[in-house]
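Consider this:
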Amino acid sequence: MLKGFKDFLFRGNVIDLAVAVVMGTAFVAIVTAFTDGIVKPIIEIFGGTGDLGLGFRIVADKPATYVALGPIITAAINFVIIAAVVYFLLVLPASRAKKRWGKSDAQTENELLTEIRDLLAEGNKSSGGRHES
């Protein structure tokens, strides 16, 4: 049982996944600091004069009904920044590298059907042309 666990831990993709999670967490912290320090104050310019920032109250006399729009906008900007970095620095270069240096395993339908036909023809020749049912 421990050998199986050890094998699982030392697989290359598990270690790569752990590194990716740690790096992703660190990157999220950087983007969050950027949006909290720069983007959020810019968004708050458009808010009211109160300390609550950009948002509105559902019921005017109840502070508990305040809907804060600033954190929602900040989270959306965080998401867009992270998605853009992941796409442009990881996904796009990886797909270009795969196109350039990766070998194509994809076959067209005609190539696949031709290969199946040839294999069936070879099978029929080796069995003497008889079919067993």
User: Anything to note?
Assistant: The chain has a mean pLDDT of 81. Strands lie at 55-57, 66-68. The first helix runs from residue 2 to 9. The CA atoms of residues 22 and 43 lie 30 Å apart.
